[in-house]
């Protein structure tokens, strides 16, 4: 029996970006129940920008993180739940607020070159016995060697799993192989994970490359929910893995049903696709959750979203800088853009 | 006559502040305190003729009286500030706290410095760099119209964030959001900080979003915000409104940029500048009051 690759569902966290953080509690319960039935081992539940992401900058969710977690966790039989925390947005206090709700995994996310802002949160989570993940975002912006250096800091704070995160959906399979391969070599005793976005249509191929290079965990979401063109569509990835003889230990048919019968009707016309805007994100290497905000700025100020996103790429913006979108739109407007 | 002061902490903030104090008409930096004799900050201080110790605050305490130190700036960390402050205040030294410890009341000069002068506090806290850049603007809106929610996003270049800031990033968000409420006048405050590693380093930028109760009075708020920009520029010349105020329903958004004076770190590090300039300005006002009471 080959090693089991652990799937981590993003529908109810990264997928929150696709719907401007407006899932109802029932939506969350329905999707998580369908994932539970398909035996997906891990499901992430929080605001799209993690604990305490609720803000003017990122959008206010329909419910608080605590309410979503309390609705989802007690009903699960098989799946465990993770939360995301981005230092600078959420704090250790927010982690304390949810830790009694039955959360098993804490993922602490930083920009790929700024791992040292995660010390407080990773050491707290690891100290409390959580499955603790260090999540290096926008990993296309650093070399494989530099990613390993940053990941060592997170490992030093106590993370047991380290992620290469393609937040912009900009990577191609050979880059994924190189980065995951070097991580695998550098951290033989840690789990290694990959988080993809489908902005260049490469999420499934990239996730496969990650597994072949030694990854232990793969992120994705049913029906490809997620920022930009969405995350790796889990049902598609599961089918590909089955053909390749990669063991995920999930129920493929139940996963397909979860995507088709449960997830897709919730998203309706907001179902992510490789739209012009999403493709621009992948092409220019821009953080995926900027998409809906750029479209909103286009509507309010009349500057094309594509121009805004390209400019944000040129300025090397990082995750969380949604406040640059209106600022750049106004600047382009004045420049006659 | 000048009031003699000591700087505790020889990192980015303490060293930048030293240059500002050397230009002051009413303050004289006499001591600089560090914990590493080889730190760049202490070396520079020695070269500038300032007395130094690398034995922490205890290395300073024994010299307070003979050197007549009346004001001390603490730019160490929230964890050691309480102890530093206790020792200094016991010797009658007024403490300006640049850490996010916030033992004393928050001080944002254009909003509430006069209030603190009248009350003669022993210890005032300078909030955070992001707080100094944005809270004047939250106040500029709330003095015109009730603000139910104030949010700020501070983006600084990675190069300008020292190890202390990085290790204790939660203190930034917690202290700043508290001050958005207490000093800015918003019912609820939220603060976000982002580090951006782009090269060349980006200028410090800050976004302020206020949600007003009822439709915002655009004309009055714009006037108030522009007046506040001038008030901050009086001590931070590189402070400017880049865009806005933008009005969208009950949202008022202001996009700011802070260019530093390039005293210690280059101009992009406006975050250092606004913190040290606000602290120097606060200390100068206290010093003028001390001098006035004596003559």
Concise structural overview:
With 337 residues, chain A is of the alpha/beta class. Helix content of chain A is 44%, strand content 12%. Chain A folds into 2 domains: 6-266, Alpha-Beta Barrel (TIM Barrel), CATH 3.20.20.70; 289-334, Helicase, Ruva Protein, domain 3, CATH 1.10.8.60.
What does this structure look like?
The complex is a heterodimer of chains A (about 325) and B (about 300). Chain A is of the alpha/beta class. Chain A folds into two domains: about 5-265, TIM Barrel (Alpha-Beta Barrel); about 290-335, Orthogonal Bundle (Helicase, Ruva Protein, domain 3), CATH 1.10.8. Chain A contains 14 helices and eight strands. Helices cover about 40% and strands about 25% of the residues of chain B. In chain B, strands 3-2-1-4-5-6 form a six-stranded parallel sheet, with helices on both faces. Chain B is α/β, with parallel strands linked by helices and about 300 residues long. The interface of A and B includes residues 93 and 318 of A.
């Amino acid at each position: 029996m080959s090693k089991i690759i652990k799937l981590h569902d993003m529908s109810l966290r990264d997928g929150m970006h696709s719907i401007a953080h407006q899932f109802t509690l029932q939506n969350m319960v329905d999707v998580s129940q369908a994932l539970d039935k398909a035996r997906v081992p891990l499901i992430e539940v929080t605001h799209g920008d993690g604990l305490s992401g609720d803000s003017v900058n990122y959008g206010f969710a329909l419910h608080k993180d605590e309410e979503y977690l309390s609705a989802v966790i007690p009903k699960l039989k098989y799946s465990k739940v993770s939360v995301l925390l981005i230092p600078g947005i959420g704090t250790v206090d927010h982690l304390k607020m949810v830790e009694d709700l039955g959360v098993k995994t804490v993922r602490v996310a930083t920009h790929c070159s700024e791992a040292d802002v995660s010390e407080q949160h990773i050491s707290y989570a690891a100290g409390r016995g959580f499955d603790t993940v260090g999540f290096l975002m926008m990993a296309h912006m650093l070399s494989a060697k530099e990613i390993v250096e940053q990941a060592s800091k997170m490992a030093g704070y106590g993370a047991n799993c380290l992620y290469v995160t393609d937040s912009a959906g900009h990577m191609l399979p050979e880059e994924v192989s190189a980065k995951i391969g070097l991580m695998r070599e550098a951290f033989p005793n840690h789990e290694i994970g990959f988080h993809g976005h489908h902005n260049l249509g490469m999420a499934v191929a990239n996730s496969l490359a990650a597994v072949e290079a030694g990854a232990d965990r793969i992120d994705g979401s049913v029906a490809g929910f997620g920022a930009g063109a969405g995350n790796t569509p889990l049902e598609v990835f599961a089918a590909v893995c089955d053909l390749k003889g990669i063991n995920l230990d999930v129920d493929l048919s139940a996963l397909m049903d979860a995507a088709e019968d449960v997830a897709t009707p919730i998203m309706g016309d907001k179902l992510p696709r490789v739209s012009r805007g999403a493709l621009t994100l992948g092409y220019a290497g821009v953080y995926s959750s900027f998409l809906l905000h750029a479209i909103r700025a286009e509507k309010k100020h009349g500057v094309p979203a594509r121009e805004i996103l390209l400019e944000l790429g040129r300025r090397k913006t990082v995750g969380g800088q949604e406040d640059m979108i209106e600022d750049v739109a106004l600047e382009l407007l004045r420049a006659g853009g | 006559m000048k009031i003699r002061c000591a700087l505790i902490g020889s990192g980015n903030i303490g060293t930048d502040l030293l240059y500002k104090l050397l230009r002051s008409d009413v303050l004289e930096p006499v001591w600089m305190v560090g914990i590493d004799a080889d730190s760049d900050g202490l070396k520079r201080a020695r070269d500038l003729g300032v007395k130094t110790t690398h034995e922490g605050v205890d290395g300073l305490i024994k010299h307070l009286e003979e050197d007549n130190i009346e004001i001390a700036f603490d730019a160490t960390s929230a964890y050691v500030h309480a102890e530093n402050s206790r020792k200094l205040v016991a010797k009658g030294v007024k403490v300006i706290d640049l850490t996010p410890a916030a033992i004393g009341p928050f001080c944002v000069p254009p909003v509430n410095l006069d209030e603190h002068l009248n009350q003669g506090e022993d210890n005032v806290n300078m909030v955070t760099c992001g707080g100094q850049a944005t809270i004047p603007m939250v106040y500029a809106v709330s003095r015109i119209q009730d603000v139910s929610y104030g949010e700020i996003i501070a983006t600084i270049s990675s190069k300008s964030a020292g190890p202390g800031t990085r290790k204790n990033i939660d203190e930034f968000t917690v202290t700043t959001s508290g001050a958005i409420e207490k000093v800015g006048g918003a019912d609820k405050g939220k603060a976000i900080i982002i580090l951006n590693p782009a090269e060349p380093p980006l200028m410090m930028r800050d976004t302020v979003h206020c949600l007003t109760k009822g439709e915002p009075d655009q004309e009055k708020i714009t006037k108030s915000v522009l007046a506040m920009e001038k008030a901050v520029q009086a001590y931070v010349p590189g402070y400017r409104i880049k865009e806005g105020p933008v009005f969208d329903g009950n949202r008022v958004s202001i996009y700011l940029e802070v260019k530093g004076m390039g005293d210690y770190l280059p101009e992009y590090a406006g975050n250092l500048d606004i913190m040290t300039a606000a602290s120097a300005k606060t200390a100068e006002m206290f010093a003028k009051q001390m001098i006035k009471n004596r003559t």
